[in-house]
Amino acid sequence: MPSPFPRDPLVHREMPSPNWNERKCPINMVVLHYTEMKPVEAALERMCDPAAEVSAHYCITEEGEVIRLVPEDKRAWHAGKSFWRGQADVNSASVGIELDHPGHALGYRPFADAQIEALIPLLDSIVRRYKIPYANVVAHSDIAPARKVDPGELFPWDRLARYKLCLPQPERLDLGDPFGNDGAFLLALERFGYDISDPVKAIEAFQRRWRPDVIDGLPDGECRAILFQLLLDRDEGRAR
Question: What family is this protein classified in (predicted)?
Fold first, then answer.
């Protein structure tokens, strides 16, 4: 039986999952997850189990092996109930990448170098082929802040940013605080892309991505300055 996947030198192994359906819109996002399961075979088995109703396009082991489970042109089931920049059907609009990792439940730790070294060229290929905006390379916690915290505060976003694969940390934070109250901050957070129906969780997700040293759900001056600069950069065309 022929493989459902095109040849790709970045992919080491194929493990076709039955858990997919047809997309309803073009690809314009990448969502990064962690498996929070060990060993990786357990996560792969779950993503290939029809009863689990969960999958991703790719899984990358801690040793750097890239495993493809669902063809990119199909809708994998990785995002669950989620929202980003007006898009409520994130599964239809995104490529999902699972990172083999114990997660917060099984002993949270830094991500393996080999894993990130395998992620970078794969992500580069996806971003370039679909012309994905930097702001749409997101964490699972960004699109589902009330439910998810992965890949978490130790994920090395700065390494991806060096290769122009996600938004970089804002360089200027000295332009003051334009938000008169917490409500104004939350509206700005929604404008940036977040679901703010659970305000504290939305702020925690923002902090986990942009100010991971302190994750307390409080919109302090540093958080306000970061969000303001992110919005300025986007509105002035320095980020997309």
Answer: Belongs to the N-acetylmuramoyl-L-alanine amidase 2 family.
48 and 150 Cβ atoms separated by less than 8 Å: no
Phi and psi torsions of 139, nearest 5°: -85, 155
Q: Which of 36, 62, 72, 98 is catalytic?
A: 98
Dist. CA 8–CA 124, nearest whole Å: 13
Instruction: Report strand pairing: 74-76 vs 20-22.
Output: antiparallel
Output the six-digit token pair for 232.
Answer: 């300025």
Is residue 98 flagged as an active site residue? yes
Q: Put residue 119 in one of left, alpha, beta given phi > 0 → left and psi -120 to 50 → alpha.
A: alpha
pLDDT in tens, the chain (240 residues): 456 666 788 999 999 999 999 999 999 999 999 999 999 999 999 999 999 999 999 999 999 999 999 999 999 999 999 999 999 999 999 999 999 999 999 999 999 999 999 999 999 999 999 999 999 999 999 999 999 999 999 999 999 999 999 999 998 788 777 888 999 999 999 999 999 999 999 999 999 999 999 999 999 999 999 999 999 988 776 666
Whether 202 contacts 139, CB under 8 Å: no
Helix axes 182-192, 199-210, angle to 10 degrees: 60
